[in-house]
Amino acid sequence: MTDQSAPDREEEFAIFNHLESEVRSYARSFPVVFATARGAQLFARDGTAYLDFLMGCSSLNYGHNPPELKSALADYIASDGITHGLDLYNEAKESFLREFHETILRPRQLDYVVQFPGPTGANAVEAALKLARKITGRSNIIAFTNGFHGVSLGALSCTGNRYHRAAAGQLLGGVTRLPYDGYLGSSVDTADYLDRLLSDPSSGVDAPAAVIVETVQGEGGLNVAGTEWLQKVAAIARRHGALLIVDDIQAGVGRTDGFFSFEKSGLRPDIVTMAKSISGYGLPLALVLIDRKLDKWEPGEHNGTFRGNCHAFVTARAALEHFWRTDSLAASVRKKGNLLKSRLEQIAQKYDPSRVSIKGRGMMQGIDLKSGEVAGQVISTAFQRGLIVETSGPKDEVVKCLPPLVIEEDRLNQGLDILEDAIDSVIGGTVKTAA
Ligand SMILES: *Cc1c(COP(=O)(O)O)cnc(C)c1O
């Protein structure tokens, strides 16, 4: 990005440039120093407001600093509530488990036990893979093209992205990659292919411990698995003695429709991984939900120092109580998801489908611009006009909208206006001067 005030900017970022590793990433797309945040907005140090359609990559589904969660946390801290409790029984965990059972699991008749791995999504995926291998005594895992499951070695083996895989510096094994729904076009049912490979003793694919799948591929470019395909994959896994792991780290917690992204499809995964928005406040917390019959862990067999973050338990419980005891949030996600879809369709309709098309589901939808370069220009133009939105997909070609679920419709429209203008000015030839 060219910037007339570059020398000033250099100074503003001096400590980051000097001391923070080159590995930093999002900061490069949005080069300002942020200070505060509220709801759907981030505020830079100089007071400039940005509308946030990135939301911690779906870690902030209820917006920045939601007041109900903030006051619960502030009260807990003020009363000297336990901050770090290893995996000791504590009141914060007790209240969270109770609320999770009453509000989420019981109404959905899901008989899961909850494992608290380390606090990141990758930690949850590692635990899920390890458990599936332990239960089945098999080592192979089936993962899909364009899947993203984190970047620690086990999770990275399941992740498709070449750039991330290359950084492993070693062979990533134990995973067989298969085409996701629609990967070979609409005329090829890739679930049939999976079934064929697992049924043929000479296919060369070892019997898998698990199939790991996202219902909507967040990082992979907003590819959506069809209900029928998901049900078929679940049935195939079962028939071949493999567990079904749904990685609901990005698509879950209301992002697509229900609390879980797989509710609509009637799936009953053996294991579910959750992280990102489960704490509701951006605090680190991950869960592995394990079918009660499959909880074959021995005490302490998979451990960690930061298992279950008490502050995150407090905000997670408050979020469930405030947003999930009734159907109103899910209903508003359906409504706003439809609004998002129709606005994105209107934008796409202005252009040839070979240049612009829409992808995704619910409140994780976006625009495929077929080119990483174009998408990069669009997000940088949008940023100059006050919108933070990121790209995803194998070539970073899909602009991915992840507004907070609680965003007001006006604000949602306002962000989409900025996105539309940015797209028009980058590819529509209706170049306007940047604000
Ligand atoms: C973000 C993400 C992960 C990894 O979570 P981290 O907290 O970054 O380790 C895993 N799976 C999916 C689907 C994700 O979106």
From TrEMBL:
Its cofactor is pyridoxal 5'-phosphate. GO terms for molecular function: diaminobutyrate-2-oxoglutarate transaminase activity. The keyword Transferase applies. It holds the Pfam family Aminotran_3. Transmembrane segments: none annotated. Coiled coil: none annotated. Pathway: Amine and polyamine biosynthesis; ectoine biosynthesis; L-ectoine from L-aspartate 4-semialdehyde: step 1/3. Keywords: Aminotransferase, Pyridoxal phosphate, Transferase. PROSITE patterns: AA_TRANSFER_CLASS_3. Its EC number is 2.6.1.76. InterPro entries: Aminotrans_3 (IPR005814), Aminotrans_3_PPA_site (IPR049704), Dat (IPR004637), Ectoine_EctB (IPR012773), PyrdxlP-dep_Trfase (IPR015424), PyrdxlP-dep_Trfase_major (IPR015421), PyrdxlP-dep_Trfase_small (IPR015422). Belongs to the class-III pyridoxal-phosphate-dependent aminotransferase family. This is Diaminobutyrate--2-oxoglutarate transaminase.
